[in-house]
Amino acid sequence: MVPPAIMAAMTSVRDAAGGDAAAMAELLTQLGYPSRPQTVRERLLAIGAGPGGAVVAVEPGGGVVGLVTYDAWFAFAEGWMVCRLSSLVVDERATRG
Length: 97
Known about the structure:
The protein is α+β, with helices and mostly antiparallel strands. Strands 1-2-3-4 form a 4-stranded antiparallel sheet. Helix 2 packs across helix 3.
């Protein structure tokens, strides 16, 4: 097992891309939302075309082991930005039990 300090140094968090679709489809399926890579690619394009949302991939030096999606918008009445996590998935093989 890689020590947590080394794992943290090796992990990258970046915008998800079309090449991540197969790994992301597997992660969503583990979460209980069966998905196909082509469907995930289409969703990545859709979220990228709209304002205020993104998909982030977590990659600890190898393949993608996690993803986060979020939506952000300006709450007019309150006068500030709001951000909501809409999904958070970590590969079941990458968790500590």
